[in-house]
Design brief:
two-stranded antiparallel ribbon, about 30% strand, 4 helices, Glutaredoxin, about 25% helix, seven-stranded mixed sheet, alpha+beta
Amino acid sequence: MHITKRGVTYHLEGVQPKTGMPAPDFHVKNLEDESKTLKDFEGQTLIISVIPDIDTRVCSLQTKQFNQTASELEGIQLVTISNNQKEQQKSWCAAEGINMEMLHDTALDFARAYGIYMPEMKKLARSVFVVDGSGQLVYQEIVPEMTEEPDYQAAITAAKDTK
C-alpha cells in the first residue's frame, strides 16, 4: 500500500490489518514511560489516532479534534500514537494544555504491527483504528493524502456502534 504527500508517493511497510479480525497487539510507552499493550485497553472501545508528527499543523488538529470529541463519549478510550520522542509529545501537550493518553512508538512496534511505517520519511502514516472491547478491529482508515485530516465522524460512529 502507499499514500501521498503533496503528490509524492510513499510506500507503507508491511501488511495492514483487516476489519473484522483481531487487532494486532503492540508495545509502546506513554508519557510516564509505562509500557502499554492492546491488553491494557481490554473491555473498552479504543480509538487509536495515529499521527506522523505531533509538531505539524494537521497532526495537531487531528489530536485536538479527537481529544475534544472522545472526552464527550462515555466508555470510549482514545490514544494518540506517533513516533515522536516522549519529550516532543510532552512539550506539545503542555503547550496546548491537553492531558491525554499519548503514546510514543519510537521502536516502531505499533507501526510495523499495523503496516503503517513509511521508511522513506521515517514516520507513521496518518490513520485511525477502532478496536472493540473484545479486541476486534471494527474500523480503520489510512488517510491516502498525508496532508489531509481523517474522517472523524466515521471513526466516532464506528466506536459508538460497538456499544
